Amino acid sequence: MSDAMNNQPVIFLLDNFDSFTYNLVNDLKMMVAELFVYRNDVPAAVIYQKMCASANEGRRVLLVLSPGPGHPKDSGCMLALITLVKGCFPILGICLGHQALVQESGGEIGSAGEIMHGKTSLISLEDHDIFAGLQNPLYVGRYHSLMATNVPDNLRVIARHQNDSGSIPMAVIDDENRMLGYQFHPESILTTSGSQLLQQSLHYLSRI
Fold first, then answer.
1. H or E stretch at 101
2. CB-CB contact of 66 with 13 (8 Å)
3. What pLDDT band is residue 208 in, cutting at 50, 70 and 90?
4. Which of 43, 44, 105, 146 meets the CB 3.0–4.6 Å disulfide criterion with 81?
5. Is the distance from CB of 120 to CB of 143 less than 8 angstroms?
6. Which CATH superfamily is domain 3-207 in?
7. Is-catalytic flag, 203?
8. 100-118: per-residue pLDDT in tens?
9. For this structure, is 95 an active site residue?
10. Would you call 187 a catalytic residue per the annotation?
11. Per-residue pLDDT at 2
């Protein structure tokens, strides 16, 4: 493997049995040295041990939590895996994965008030390295009916969507524990510059 590829992170992706998982896999494969996919019915300890083994080989390791149906509490090993990985390796959560990061951190997940499956919304972005060079506001693809209704203090909201009912957290970050969540789908064709956002997210998480 070349030095350039070896310097890229190795991704462990948790598949929450979602149709978007392999769209995400296809995007990520072009950005990293290696990518391993585990479904959420695999014990969290097994995945964590594999991540530690890769790190012990001198590799930079990153966990990605895929979108998926339902509520984070019903998503197999995902919450347990976050608990094991948090503070040890960076984590990127998308849609359901984002909600799981919020819940595991002590937040609450509830109804978004409307079903947003395959719809586009404008979100406002805070000034952050992750969003460098992106349009602001940014068009993103949404596929969810749940949302973070209470975000804990350790997670900072860095993107929001404003509607008639109020403000919806669309991106959260915990720099100390290297966790980043997107309620929207960067891998969707409905998201403007989604691949650029994914690339910048991986770069940021793997260097802090």
1. helix 96-104
2. yes
3. low
4. 44
5. no
6. Class I glutamine amidotransferase (GATase) domain (3.40.50.880)
7. no
8. 999 999 999 998 877 778 8
9. yes
10. yes
11. 46
